[in-house]
Amino acid sequence: MTKHRFRERVKSFFGSHVDPEKDEELKGTKAEIEDKIQKILAYLKGEHGRDEKEPLVEAVEDFHNHYQSLYARYDHLTGKLRENVHEKDSSSSSSDSDSDSDGSTRKKGKKNGKLKFTEVTDGIKEELTSANLEIVELKAQLMAANEEKEALQSEHQSTLSKLQEAETTICSLTNEAEKLKEENSKLLGETVDLNENLEKSAKLEAELMQKLEEITKERESLLLEKETMGNSILEGNSTIEELRTTMGQLKEEKETLQIELEGLKSELPSVKEQLDSAEKEIAQLSQTQKATEEDNSSLSSKVLQLSEEIGQAQQKIQDLVTEADQLKGMLDEKEKEFSSHKEIHDAHKTEASTRLRGMELEIGSLQSQRSKIEKQKEDELSALLKKLEEKEGEFSSQMEALTTKINNMQLEIESLNELKGKLEEEMEQQRNKMSAEVEDLTNEVNKKDQELESLRGQKLELEAELEKKTQEISGFSSEIESLKQDIANKSAESLKILEEKESSLSQVKDLEVELKSLQNLKHELEEKLTSKDETIVQLKNDKEMMQDKISEIERALTERGSELAILRKKSEDGETESSAQIAALTLQVSNLQEHSENLQVQKSQIESQHEAKAGEASEYLTQLEILKEELARNTSDGQRMLEEKEGLVVQVREEKGSLLSKISELESALAEKLEEHGTLQKKLEEVQNEASTQIAALTEEVNKLRQQTELLQTEKSQMELVIETGKQESTESLAQAENQNTELSQKLVDQEIKLKEREEAFGKLVEEKDSLVVQVNDLQAEV
């Protein structure tokens, strides 16, 4: 509150001396600078589009030119202040001989100035009560000096003649002093403008601090989002491991099914052998039938009954042959059913593949959304970082921290480039591997299709093809294991990338801590410089009344500059220079006022005692010469101090110019590094997208293998049913064939018995015939 009141009083005292034209010019330049800053922010936020680098560069160059023009204007003002200080010093050396002609006007002007000055000093006394004791001591010293001057007045009468001659010179000097006062008032008005600019810069500082806090909050939220994404990635890895376990189980089930299929296939040849044996027996029966037909053809007249029975046997044999043909047809139908089941299996496989593709597309869309969200957050982070860097670029207080950050960023970018190269090489290798594997898989699928087609036409090659399939499945299992290892490696790489991001964030925090420590060091150095300046001012103005008050004003200004030194090094440099110049000007004004008051007192005393002490003029002239020498010494000391300060100002300007050049170079380097960072982020996103596509492809293959195992299980169940039905039918047909064989064998035995009986009867008939022939021959012989 005390500083604010003091600032208001200084404004009220110096406000009338402000140049309105310069004030309007400063306001106009401020408005232009604010418009340009808004344009730059709009370009950075991307409100006008994406590809707007050229207008942004033009806006930055225009803003830099405006800043250079303001800096030149500030140099011009400081030059004027130095000229005014030199003129005031030259005028103060010759202001001890004043005339009587313009005494009344000077007294009025000085009284008015004294009233204003006393008002300001009263306000300062209220705020700085600690200085009252020192002021009392200085007043005591002034009283002692006045007593000494009164003692010298007796000797001063002789100097009146010479003082009258010096009055003309004093008038000219007073005119010059008035001119200097007018210029001083103008300079004070300009200092008021500078104070207003300081207040505005303080407001800007507060706004920037708020923005920094908001940015830190956004960074923390982004870190939380990254942690959640890392957790989601870990959950995805756990699901992948669960899928791997299920794949192993499905592989085991598939192997068991293959073993059962091989057992069933081993049973098929035994059934085929039984059928072949039945067919051979039927062929033998047909051969025996043909033999019996040939035997019975000679006995056709006698054995008609046998021929009828043989016809019946032939019909039965034909029935058996038809039954065998029917069994063959049943086998063909079973084969057709097996082929239809395989076609259904292929259809299910295609449907499952389409479903898997749909699921993969959904997973890809979710991953793309996740990548877009990450991209947006990273873009927002990059935009906020750009804003911060531009705001920090406007204040040179953080240039050392920025250089360290840039070096760290370069190291990080180099490491990211190396990681990027490694990732690109690994991704190219993986792409080549995956393409080769896909080609192998397509070739194997084509081979499988050909093998299925050949299986439909060739029953005897089932065993060899099953062995090939088992070998192919073992190859698939090895490939799946390699793919699992690739997935694990990719997950580890993604975790490494997340850890590197977290380490980079920790490095940024460490850099911020270093920046704060550097700012504290800078603050301490500035306090040391201000203390040195205060000691110089104390050595220069030991015999002046208002030295302590003005030094306290300088301290207040330097404290204000140290508070503003966190984010505004440029404004602080100008502030310290202006505060030093204002302090020097106020000191010189106070010295001039004190000298003029002393001269007026001396003049009044000399005029009152002019007639009584004319003889003591010579001694007074000698004392005046001594005083002039002391004044000359003081002025020479002041000029020396001013020259030293001017040297410091020149050094500060040179350092400022070098810092500005460094700022421009660092800004260009930052722009390049930001572009490289954007390209790296894009490449990393592409790598992540490719990894997500590979993971999706692997999940597709896993799902396909699952479906294949499920289909194999269904095929196994169907084959078991078919084999069981075939076994039942074959057992039934074999039982029927055996029954028929037994019946035929019994019939053949009966027929053989009947043939033997008939042969015996036929032999008997032949014997009877022979006997009858013998009897007929005997009878003929007898006749």
From TrEMBL:
Cellular component per GO? cytoskeleton
Q: Which GO terms describe its molecular function?
A: actin binding; structural constituent of cytoskeleton
Kindly give the SUPFAM superfamilies that the UniProt entry links to this protein.
Methyl-accepting chemotaxis protein (MCP) signaling domain
Kindly list any coiled-coil regions of this protein. 121-556, 582-612, 663-761
Region of interest (Disordered), residue spans: 85-111
Q: Is the keyword Nucleotidyltransferase assigned to this protein?
A: no
Q: Which Pfam families match?
A: KIP1
InterPro entries per record? NAB
Q: Which residues form the NAB domain?
A: 10-81
The protein's name: Putative myosin-4-like
